[in-house]
Amino acid sequence: MTASTPPPPPPSTPPAPPATRRPPSRWVAPVVAAVVAAGAGLGIGWLLWSGPDSAASGTGVDDAAADAAGACQAWQRVPAFSTLASGDKDAAHHFNRAISAAYLAQTAAELDDRYKALNEAFQDVHGHLRTFKVEGAEAEAAHEKVTTLCADLDG
């Protein structure tokens, strides 16, 4: 009979446990809280800014007047097209605001035919912005037409 060889000795260090997911970092909860707080702050600011007497504070899904008023309120913060063409550092924000106002005017017109002229004027402006043709008499006339229609809407 031959002697069998003894089994190898156990390792001196135990094997490492399988990798597990790291617990979330400490910054996740504060970031989520900050985002929620910012969203709530913007909503409250909008409610306070627009006020209960503002047409843009309408709550109905089909409130065309609120959409038209919202389009005109956004338009009030769009400078003359000559400013946009000059390379103003805020030009991109003004472009986005004007295009968003055009979409609101379109929605208002789809809900109520009384806003058809406002929508057509905004779509003309949208065409100028989309093609970056914001210089010249034609572009300035389109800008002025929307400004006039919005002023009539307020009156």
What does this structure look like?
The chain has 155 residues and is an all-alpha fold. The chain has six helices and no strands. It is elongated and about 110 Å long. The termini are far apart. 25% of the residues are buried. The mean pLDDT is 77.
Please bin the fraction of helical residues. 55-70%
Radius of gyration, taken over Cα atoms and rounded to an integer in Å = 30 Å
SSE class: mainly alpha
Helix count equals 6
Q: Report the count of strand segments.
A: 0
- The coarse silhouette is elongated
Strand content: under 5%
In the predicted model, the low-confidence regions spanning at least 5 consecutive residues are none
Mean pLDDT: 77
Largest sheet: none
Terminal Cα span: 114 Å
Q: SSE order, as H and E?
A: HHHHHH
Give short descriptive properties of this protein.
about 160 residues, mainly alpha, 6 helices, about 0% strand
